[in-house]
Amino acid sequence: MILGILGGDAVDDGEGGEDIALEHAAQLAEALAANPAAAVLDVRGAGEFAADHVKGAVNIAYTRLAARISEVPNGSPLFIHCGSGLRAAFATSFLAVEGHEVVYVNGSFGEIPAGIRK
């Protein structure tokens, strides 16, 4: 099981695979403050990232993850978000299989606190 952050919430795949930790977008600032070794991966497109993003986040579009796997941040845990949650869900599953300690950030980008955004 991949460890949860706040409250230990996790998404169970229902098929005996890895559980994936879950964090709501509105609590991302608290989770990052509690985990100084954490990293943030933004899997939205480059244009979305340029318009607004979490400070210090690395941007790799979810469609490019396999080709750019060496660029995925090594932070532990790795918080993964997108604009609405769908792309992050795909990316989180992929990176969990690749061995990363991942946390799926559920919710829209707009729910991420403004204080941690650029």
Give the oligomeric state: single chain
Classify the fold: give the CATH topology: Oxidized Rhodanese, domain 1
Morphology: globular
Rg over CA atoms, rounded to whole Å, is 13 Å
Assign the CATH architecture.
3-Layer(aba) Sandwich
- The CATH class, by name, is Alpha Beta
- Series of H and E elements: EEHEHEEHE
Widest sheet, order of strands: 1-2-6-5-3-4
Structure write-up:
The chain is an alpha/beta fold and 118 residues long. It has one domain (10-116): Oxidized Rhodanese, domain 1. Helices cover 21% and strands 19% of the residues. A 6-stranded mixed β-sheet has the order 1-2-6-5-3-4, sandwiched between helices. The longest helix is centred in the last third of the chain and has 12 residues, at 86-97.
Summarize this structure as a short list of keywords or feature phrases:
six-stranded mixed beta sheet, alpha/beta, disordered N terminus, Oxidized Rhodanese, domain 1, 118 residues
Summarize the structure.
With 118 residues, the protein is an alpha/beta fold. The protein has 3 helices and 6 strands. It has helices spanning 28-34, 46-51, 86-97, and strands at residues 10-11, 20-24, 39-42, 58-59, 78-81, 102-106.
